[in-house]
Specification:
By secondary structure, the protein is of the alpha+beta class. It has helices at 4-15, 83-103, 148-159, 176-201; strands at 20-25, 33-37, 53-65, 69-80, 111-122, 129-142, 163-171, 203-213, 222-224, 243-257. It has 4 helices and 10 strands; from the N terminus they run H-E-E-E-E-H-E-E-H-E-H-E-E-E. The strands form 2 sheets. Strands 2-1-3-10-8 form a 5-stranded mixed sheet. A hairpin with a 6-residue loop joins strand 5 (111-122) and strand 6 (129-142). Helix 2 (83-103) packs antiparallel against helix 3.
C-alpha cells in the first residue's frame, strides 16, 4: 500500500497544474484519494469556475436521541369449524383486548384496526376444508413508553392463547432537531478534511461550490415478538434504547493557489 504521505505529495504536484478534480472520502474506513481529469467541459459543480481544480469530500455524522413514541402491533387469532364461529370468538377476544388497552390509558384514537382476514384451513392433502381462521390485527401507538410491558401483559391476559404480538417499534415523533445536528456535524467534517487536504497539497481551500445532502430517511428499529399465549411473567421488560439519526453530505470546494506557498 502506498503511504498516505506519498499520495499527498503526488497530489500536491498534480494540483498545481489546475487541471484535476480530487475526491476524498471522509466518512470513515480506509482513507484514500483519487485524481481524475476535470469535467469542466460538461459543467462544473455549483459555482466552481470553469477549468478550476476542485475537491469533493464526503462527510458522515451520527447523533443519538431517546425514542418518545411506541408503536405496538397486536393480533388476535382464532380458529373454529365454521367461519361464523371463528369470527364470533375473534370478536369477543378482540373487544376484550381493546378494552384493556383503553383501561391502561391508551386513547381510542391511538388504537387502529390494521388488518382483518378470514381464511379456510385445509387438510394435509389440501382436498378438504377442516375449519376457518380469523386474524384481527390492532396497531397501538403511545408516548408513554414506560407502559409497554404492562400493555403487552394485559393484552395477553385479555386475549389468552389467541394473542399474537407481531412487533414493537420505537421512534421519534420529530427527528428534525437531531437530523439538523447530524448534518451540521457532517458539514463541519467535510470542511475540516478538505482544509487538511488543501494544506497538504500546497493549495488553499477556496469557496464552497456545492453541498448535497445524501441522508437516507430514518428507519425506526423494530423488535419482532412473534408468538402467542399469556405472558410468563407479571411484567415483560421492554427497553426503548436510543434512536440514531445519521447524515451523509457531499461538499465540493474549489482549490486555489496558496498565497504563502505552504
Amino acid at each position: 500500500m502506498v503511504p498516505r504521505a506519498a499520495v499527498l505529495g503526488t497530489l500536491g504536484a498534480m494540483l498545481v497544474a489546475g487541471t484535476s478534480i480530487v475526491t476524498w472520502r471522509a466518512s470513515g474506513g480506509q482513507a484514500g484519494a483519487q485524481v481524475k481529469p476535470t469535467e469542466a467541459a460538461q459543467g462544473s459543480p455549483g459555482a466552481c469556475r470553469s477549468g478550476a481544480t476542485t475537491l469533493t469530500v464526503n462527510g458522515q455524522a451520527t447523533v443519538q436521541g431517546t425514542p418518545d413514541l411506541l408503536t405496538l402491533v397486536l393480533g388476535v387469532e382464532t380458529q373454529a369449524p365454521s367461519a361464523a364461529a371463528a369470527m364470533s370468538s375473534n370478536a369477543t377476544k378482540a373487544n376484550a383486548l381493546i378494552s384493556v388497552l383503553q383501561a391502561d390509558g391508551v386513547a381510542s384514537s391511538h388504537i387502529q384496526t390494521s388488518g382483518l382476514s378470514v381464511q379456510a384451513n385445509y387438510s394435509s392433502n389440501g382436498q378438504r376444508i377442516t375449519g376457518y381462521q380469523v386474524d384481527n390485527d390492532v396497531t397501538v401507538t403511545t408516548t408513554n413508553l414506560g407502559t409497554a410491558g404492562q400493555l403487552i401483559d394485559d393484552a395477553a391476559r385479555a386475549a389468552g392463547n389467541a394473542i399474537r404480538i407481531s412487533s414493537i417499534t420505537f421512534s421519534l415523533q420529530d427527528d428534525a432537531a437531531l437530523a439538523g445536528q447530524a448534518r451540521a456535524q457532517a458539514v463541519r467534517q467535510t470542511r475540516s478534511e478538505a482544509q487538511a487536504m488543501a494544506n497538504a497539497s500546497g493549495m488553499a481551500l477556496g469557496p464552497l461550490c456545492s453541498l448535497q445532502d445524501n441522508s437516507a430517511p430514518v428507519e425506526p428499529p423494530t423488535v419482532s415478538l412473534n408468538g402467542g399465549g399469556p405472558a410468563a411473567t407479571p411484567s415483560t421488560p421492554i427497553e426503548a434504547g436510543t434512536e440514531q439519526v445519521t447524515a451523509n453530505v457531499t461538499a465540493v470546494y474549489e482549490l486555489v493557489p496558496s498565497v504563502t506557498g505552504q
